[in-house]
Design brief:
Blueprint: E1 2-8, H1 10-13, H2 22-29, E2 34-40, H3 46-57, E3 63-69, H4 72-76, H5 84-101, E4 106-110, H6 119-133, E5 139-142, H7 164-181
Parallel strand pairs: 1-2, 1-3, 3-4, 4-5
Helix pairs in contact: 2-7, 3-5, 5-6
Length: about 190
C-alpha cells in the first residue's frame, strides 16, 4: 500500500485521532488505498522536526505525498523561536530530503494559520512558504491566507489550534489541491497491488 506522511506540530498531531480532525479525514478518505502516518509533534519547531526528519522517511518506501504544516511554534514560541530565514532553510532541507528518497513524491506545504496574537509576524513565515512553492515542480502550497478556505479566528478554539470548522476548511483545501494538481494520487485513482 502507498504511504502519505503528515508532518507538523500540534496542528497535525492533535487532528489525527479525533473524528473532526483533518488528519482523521485524510485517513478516512484514503482508507484501503494508502497508509496515513501522523508525524505531528506538539510544541515542535521546524528546527526540531528537521533534526529527526530523516527518521520519518525510513520504512515508508511507497511515499506518494507529504504534507508539511510548521511555523506556528517557530513564530510564537519562546523556546522554539526560529527566524524566517532558518525556517526557510529547514523547509528546503525537508523538501530536498524527500526528493532524494523519492523524486516523484508530491509535497504540500501548508502555511501556518492565523493566530490570536502576533499575526504581522506570522505573515513572514507564510511568505517563506509562498516563495518555496513558487514555480516548483511537485510542490504545492495550501495557503490558509489566500482568501479561499482561510482559517480565521472563528476557526480557532484557543487562539492557536483549529476547531471543527477550521479542520473542515484545511481538509477541503488539501483535497481540492490534490484533485486540481495531482488527481492521479487521489484515492479513486490509486490501485494497490
Amino acid at each position: 500500500m502507498f504511504d502519505i506522511l503528515l508532518i507538523g506540530d500540534s496542528l497535525t498531531q492533535w487532528n489525527y485521532n479525533t473524528e473532526i480532525g483533518w488528519g482523521y479525514k485524510m485517513k478516512q478518505w484514503y482508507a484501503g488505498k494508502a497508509n496515513i502516518h501522523n508525524k505531528g509533534f506538539a510544541g515542535y519547531s521546524s528546527t526540531m522536526i528537521k533534526n529527526i526528519f530523516h527518521e520519518f522517511l525510513l520504512g515508508n518506501p511507497q511515499i506518494i505525498c507529504v504534507t508539511i504544516l510548521l511555523g506556528t511554534n517557530d513564530c510564537h514560541g519562546s523556546e522554539t523561536k526560529v527566524s524566517p530565514a532558518e525556517y526557510k532553510q529547514n523547509l528546503a532541507y525537508m523538501i530536498e530530503t524527500i526528493h532524494n528518497i523519492n523524486h516523484l513524491a508530491v509535497i504540500l506545504l501548508i502555511t501556518p494559520p492565523i493566530t490570536e496574537h502576533n499575526n504581522d509576524n506570522i505573515l513572514h513565515y507564510v511568505n517563506v512558504v509562498r516563495e518555496l512553492c513558487y514555480n516548483q515542480l511537485r510542490i504545492r502550497i495550501v495557503d490558509l491566507h489566500s482568501g479561499k478556505n482561510d482559517i480565521t479566528l472563528a476557526d480557532l478554539y484557543d487562539g492557536v489550534h483549529i476547531n471543527e470548522s477550521g479542520n473542515i476548511k484545511l481538509y477541503e483545501h488539501i483535497k481540492d489541491t490534490l484533485h486540481t494538481y495531482y488527481d492521479c494520487i487521489c484515492p479513486d485513482k490509486l490501485f494497490c497491488t
